[in-house]
Description:
This protein has one domain. The chain has four helices and no strands. The protein has helices spanning 2-25, 32-55, 63-85, 90-98.
Amino acid sequence: MSQTLNSLATGLQVGAVLPLLTAVVQRPNWSARYKRIVAVFASLVAGTAAVAADGGWSQFQQGKLTTVTVLGVLVAAQTSYDLLWKPSKLAPVIEAATSRKTPQRAE
């Protein structure tokens, strides 16, 4: 049980800051559906990396711990974005700041 809670805690910690990292990649003009797909993919990648970093590659043989960690990242990322990063406007500001500015044509 303790190992499961440690895996969940790792997933929650990674997921809490993941929206800020995802905001660097996302663009303000992307559709909500596309942003959601990118966020879920980033959560899966970050969850996999968290599993490897927390317990090494041997932890992947324990399906329950891997699943708990990846789901913890996904839930924490979506929750922290909706409750913290979006209302504080920090994630949208990062998106706008890291977007490429396209030069306007002179007509």
